[in-house]
Amino acid sequence: MLLNIRDATMASQVIQDIVTRHGKLNGLVNNAGGQFMSPASQLTSKGFSTVVDLNLNGTFNMCKAAFDGYMGEHGGQIVTIVAETRNGIPRAMHTGAARAGIINMTKTLAIEWGPYNGIRINCVAPGLIISSGMKNYHETMVDLLAHSHWMNPTSRYGTESEVSASVAFLLSPAASYINGVNLEVDGGSSLSKGNPEGDELKYNPEGSRHPVYVGWPEGVDNVHGIKQVDAPAKINELLEKYKAIGRSSKI
Protein backbone atom coordinates (compact mmCIF):
# COMPACT_ATOMS: atom_id res chain seq x y z
CA MET A 1 0.00 0.00 0.00
CA LEU A 2 1.58 3.26 -1.15
CA LEU A 3 1.02 6.39 0.92
CA ASN A 4 2.19 9.98 0.60
CA ILE A 5 1.86 11.24 4.17
CA ARG A 6 2.02 14.83 2.93
CA ASP A 7 -1.41 14.28 1.36
CA ALA A 8 -4.04 14.57 4.12
CA THR A 9 -6.75 13.08 1.91
CA MET A 10 -4.65 10.03 1.13
CA ALA A 11 -3.75 9.61 4.81
CA SER A 12 -7.45 9.60 5.73
CA GLN A 13 -8.25 7.10 2.98
CA VAL A 14 -5.55 4.67 4.14
CA ILE A 15 -6.84 4.77 7.72
CA GLN A 16 -10.40 4.24 6.49
CA ASP A 17 -9.29 1.26 4.39
CA ILE A 18 -7.52 -0.32 7.39
CA VAL A 19 -10.53 0.11 9.66
CA THR A 20 -12.84 -1.27 6.98
CA ARG A 21 -10.62 -4.32 6.43
CA HIS A 22 -9.80 -5.10 10.08
CA GLY A 23 -12.60 -3.44 11.99
CA LYS A 24 -10.23 -1.53 14.26
CA LEU A 25 -7.00 0.43 14.54
CA ASN A 26 -5.11 -0.38 17.73
CA GLY A 27 -1.91 1.52 17.04
CA LEU A 28 -0.14 3.90 14.69
CA VAL A 29 3.65 4.12 14.34
CA ASN A 30 4.85 7.17 12.45
CA ASN A 31 8.18 6.13 10.96
CA ALA A 32 8.16 7.90 7.59
CA GLY A 33 10.41 10.85 6.99
CA GLY A 34 13.44 12.07 5.16
CA GLN A 35 16.17 14.67 5.04
CA PHE A 36 19.48 15.49 3.43
CA MET A 37 22.70 16.84 4.89
CA SER A 38 23.30 20.56 4.43
CA PRO A 39 24.81 23.39 6.47
CA ALA A 40 22.12 25.88 7.42
CA SER A 41 23.99 28.61 5.52
CA GLN A 42 23.51 26.65 2.30
CA LEU A 43 19.96 25.49 2.94
CA THR A 44 17.30 26.96 0.65
CA SER A 45 13.81 27.92 1.69
CA LYS A 46 12.43 25.20 -0.59
CA GLY A 47 14.67 22.57 0.93
CA PHE A 48 13.67 23.57 4.45
CA SER A 49 9.96 23.60 3.60
CA THR A 50 10.13 20.23 1.85
CA VAL A 51 11.63 18.47 4.88
CA VAL A 52 9.28 20.17 7.35
CA ASP A 53 6.29 19.31 5.15
CA LEU A 54 7.28 15.65 5.08
CA ASN A 55 8.40 15.13 8.66
CA LEU A 56 6.18 17.50 10.65
CA ASN A 57 3.10 18.06 8.51
CA GLY A 58 3.06 14.44 7.38
CA THR A 59 3.11 13.23 10.97
CA PHE A 60 0.23 15.55 11.83
CA ASN A 61 -1.75 14.25 8.85
CA MET A 62 -1.39 10.66 10.04
CA CYS A 63 -2.23 11.47 13.67
CA LYS A 64 -5.30 13.46 12.65
CA ALA A 65 -6.44 10.75 10.23
CA ALA A 66 -6.12 8.10 12.96
CA PHE A 67 -8.07 10.28 15.41
CA ASP A 68 -10.85 11.09 12.95
CA GLY A 69 -11.02 7.61 11.45
CA TYR A 70 -11.07 5.52 14.63
CA MET A 71 -9.19 6.57 17.75
CA GLY A 72 -11.33 9.57 18.62
CA GLU A 73 -14.21 7.20 19.40
CA HIS A 74 -12.39 4.00 20.35
CA GLY A 75 -8.97 5.02 21.69
CA GLY A 76 -5.59 3.73 20.62
CA GLN A 77 -1.85 4.26 20.85
CA ILE A 78 0.39 6.44 18.67
CA VAL A 79 4.19 6.37 18.63
CA THR A 80 6.31 8.63 16.44
CA ILE A 81 9.98 8.03 15.65
CA VAL A 82 11.88 11.31 15.94
CA ALA A 83 15.56 12.20 16.34
CA GLU A 84 17.54 13.35 19.33
CA THR A 85 17.25 17.14 19.10
CA ARG A 86 18.22 18.39 22.56
CA ASN A 87 21.67 19.56 21.48
CA GLY A 88 20.76 20.48 17.91
CA ILE A 89 21.56 18.57 14.73
CA PRO A 90 24.37 20.28 12.80
CA ARG A 91 23.99 19.97 9.01
CA ALA A 92 20.39 18.84 9.52
CA MET A 93 18.73 21.92 10.97
CA HIS A 94 15.63 21.40 8.83
CA THR A 95 14.85 17.95 10.17
CA GLY A 96 15.86 19.01 13.69
CA ALA A 97 13.28 21.79 13.60
CA ALA A 98 10.63 19.40 12.28
CA ARG A 99 11.39 16.74 14.90
CA ALA A 100 11.32 19.29 17.71
CA GLY A 101 7.92 20.36 16.42
CA ILE A 102 6.71 16.76 16.50
CA ILE A 103 7.83 16.37 20.12
CA ASN A 104 5.88 19.45 21.18
CA MET A 105 2.89 18.40 19.07
CA THR A 106 2.96 15.01 20.80
CA LYS A 107 2.88 16.62 24.24
CA THR A 108 -0.02 18.85 23.23
CA LEU A 109 -2.00 16.01 21.67
CA ALA A 110 -1.44 13.91 24.79
CA ILE A 111 -3.16 16.63 26.80
CA GLU A 112 -5.98 17.22 24.32
CA TRP A 113 -6.61 13.64 23.21
CA GLY A 114 -5.81 11.76 26.41
CA PRO A 115 -9.42 11.99 27.66
CA TYR A 116 -10.73 10.45 24.42
CA ASN A 117 -11.23 6.78 25.32
CA GLY A 118 -7.67 6.19 26.43
CA ILE A 119 -5.61 7.62 23.59
CA ARG A 120 -1.88 7.66 24.37
CA ILE A 121 0.68 9.35 22.14
CA ASN A 122 4.45 9.26 22.65
CA CYS A 123 7.73 9.64 20.80
CA VAL A 124 10.87 7.53 20.54
CA ALA A 125 14.10 9.39 19.81
CA PRO A 126 16.84 7.01 18.61
CA GLY A 127 20.48 7.95 18.78
CA LEU A 128 22.89 6.50 16.24
CA ILE A 129 21.46 3.13 15.23
CA ILE A 130 23.19 0.45 13.17
CA SER A 131 20.91 0.21 10.14
CA SER A 132 20.78 0.31 6.35
CA GLY A 133 20.57 4.10 6.56
CA MET A 134 24.32 4.20 7.22
CA LYS A 135 24.87 2.99 3.65
CA ASN A 136 23.83 6.46 2.52
CA TYR A 137 26.80 8.03 4.30
CA HIS A 138 30.03 8.94 2.52
CA GLU A 139 32.92 6.56 3.14
CA THR A 140 34.67 9.25 5.18
CA MET A 141 31.66 9.46 7.48
CA VAL A 142 31.51 5.67 7.80
CA ASP A 143 35.19 5.64 8.83
CA LEU A 144 34.46 8.30 11.44
CA LEU A 145 31.48 6.37 12.80
CA ALA A 146 33.51 3.18 12.99
CA HIS A 147 35.98 4.84 15.36
CA SER A 148 33.74 7.14 17.42
CA HIS A 149 31.15 4.65 18.67
CA TRP A 150 32.49 5.03 22.21
CA MET A 151 31.52 8.71 22.45
CA ASN A 152 28.46 8.20 24.64
CA PRO A 153 28.09 6.74 28.16
CA THR A 154 27.13 3.32 26.77
CA SER A 155 30.19 3.32 24.47
CA ARG A 156 28.36 1.80 21.52
CA TYR A 157 25.67 2.39 18.91
CA GLY A 158 22.16 1.01 19.17
CA THR A 159 20.38 -1.70 17.19
CA GLU A 160 17.13 -1.71 15.28
CA SER A 161 15.80 -4.23 17.81
CA GLU A 162 16.43 -1.85 20.69
CA VAL A 163 14.37 0.85 18.98
CA SER A 164 11.66 -1.65 18.00
CA ALA A 165 11.44 -2.93 21.57
CA SER A 166 10.91 0.61 22.82
CA VAL A 167 8.11 1.18 20.33
CA ALA A 168 6.49 -2.16 21.20
CA PHE A 169 6.64 -1.26 24.89
CA LEU A 170 4.97 2.13 24.38
CA LEU A 171 2.22 0.49 22.31
CA SER A 172 1.61 -2.17 24.94
CA PRO A 173 -0.57 -2.14 28.08
CA ALA A 174 2.65 -2.17 30.12
CA ALA A 175 3.02 1.53 29.20
CA SER A 176 -0.58 2.40 30.05
CA TYR A 177 0.49 5.24 32.38
CA ILE A 178 2.98 6.79 29.95
CA ASN A 179 1.61 9.60 27.83
CA GLY A 180 3.22 12.55 26.08
CA VAL A 181 6.85 11.53 26.58
CA ASN A 182 9.84 11.52 24.29
CA LEU A 183 11.72 8.31 25.10
CA GLU A 184 15.37 8.76 24.17
CA VAL A 185 16.88 5.46 23.03
CA ASP A 186 20.40 6.73 22.55
CA GLY A 187 22.74 5.17 25.09
CA GLY A 188 22.83 8.47 26.95
CA SER A 189 24.28 10.50 24.07
CA SER A 190 21.67 13.21 24.60
CA LEU A 191 23.11 13.83 28.07
CA SER A 192 26.65 14.56 26.97
CA LYS A 193 28.68 14.75 23.79
CA GLY A 194 32.25 13.48 23.61
CA ASN A 195 34.64 12.70 26.44
CA PRO A 196 33.71 14.55 29.64
CA GLU A 197 36.40 15.99 31.89
CA GLY A 198 37.65 13.89 34.79
CA ASP A 199 39.20 10.44 34.61
CA GLU A 200 36.36 8.88 36.58
CA LEU A 201 33.85 10.00 33.96
CA LYS A 202 35.69 9.15 30.78
CA TYR A 203 33.93 6.85 28.36
CA ASN A 204 35.55 3.62 27.32
CA PRO A 205 37.31 3.98 23.93
CA GLU A 206 38.27 0.30 24.07
CA GLY A 207 34.67 -0.78 23.70
CA SER A 208 31.32 -1.01 25.41
CA ARG A 209 30.59 -3.03 28.52
CA HIS A 210 26.85 -2.90 27.85
CA PRO A 211 25.40 -6.06 26.28
CA VAL A 212 23.54 -5.40 23.04
CA TYR A 213 19.92 -6.43 22.54
CA VAL A 214 19.03 -8.19 19.30
CA GLY A 215 15.51 -9.49 19.80
CA TRP A 216 14.57 -10.02 16.17
CA PRO A 217 16.62 -11.39 13.26
CA GLU A 218 18.79 -8.48 12.22
CA GLY A 219 19.44 -8.14 8.51
CA VAL A 220 20.26 -10.91 6.07
CA ASP A 221 22.58 -13.92 5.99
CA ASN A 222 26.00 -13.27 4.56
CA VAL A 223 28.18 -15.96 2.96
CA HIS A 224 29.12 -17.30 6.39
CA GLY A 225 25.51 -17.62 7.51
CA ILE A 226 25.87 -14.87 10.13
CA LYS A 227 22.98 -12.53 10.64
CA GLN A 228 24.04 -9.01 9.73
CA VAL A 229 22.41 -5.65 9.23
CA ASP A 230 22.32 -4.22 5.73
CA ALA A 231 24.95 -1.68 6.74
CA PRO A 232 28.59 -0.94 5.78
CA ALA A 233 31.04 -3.74 6.62
CA LYS A 234 32.92 -1.65 9.18
CA ILE A 235 29.68 -0.99 11.04
CA ASN A 236 28.72 -4.67 10.99
CA GLU A 237 32.11 -5.43 12.53
CA LEU A 238 31.10 -3.21 15.43
CA LEU A 239 27.84 -5.08 15.81
CA GLU A 240 29.69 -8.38 16.05
CA LYS A 241 31.85 -6.91 18.82
CA TYR A 242 28.71 -5.76 20.63
CA LYS A 243 27.22 -9.25 20.39
CA ALA A 244 30.40 -10.70 21.88
CA ILE A 245 29.88 -8.51 24.94
CA GLY A 246 26.54 -10.19 25.54
CA ARG A 247 28.01 -13.67 25.12
CA SER A 248 30.77 -12.98 27.64
CA SER A 249 28.73 -10.90 30.08
CA LYS A 250 27.83 -12.21 33.52
CA ILE A 251 24.66 -10.11 33.60
From TrEMBL:
Could you name the domain of life of the organism this protein comes from?
Answer: Eukaryota
Keyword Oxidoreductase: yes or no? yes
GO molecular function terms attached to this record: trans-2-enoyl-CoA reductase (NADPH) activity
InterPro entries to which the protein is assigned, alphabetical = NAD(P)-bd_dom_sf, Peroxisomal_t2-enoyl-CoA_red, SDR_fam
Record-listed E.C. numbers: 1.3.1.38
Q: Where in the cell is it found?
A: Peroxisome
UniProtKB keywords: Fatty acid biosynthesis, Fatty acid metabolism, Lipid biosynthesis, Lipid metabolism, NADP, Oxidoreductase, Peroxisome, Phosphoprotein
Catalysed reaction equations from the record: (2E)-hexenoyl-CoA + NADPH + H(+) = hexanoyl-CoA + NADP(+); (2E)-tetradecenoyl-CoA + NADPH + H(+) = tetradecanoyl-CoA + NADP(+); a (2E)-enoyl-CoA + NADPH + H(+) = a 2,3-saturated acyl-CoA + NADP(+); (2E)-octenoyl-CoA + NADPH + H(+) = octanoyl-CoA + NADP(+)
The pathway where this protein functions is:
Lipid metabolism
Subunit structure comment from the entry: Interacts with PEX5, probably required to target it into peroxisomes.
PANTHER family according to UniProt: PEROXISOMAL TRANS-2-ENOYL-COA REDUCTASE (PTHR24317)
| Protein name (record) | Peroxisomal trans-2-enoyl-CoA reductase
Origin organism is Linnemannia elongata AG-77
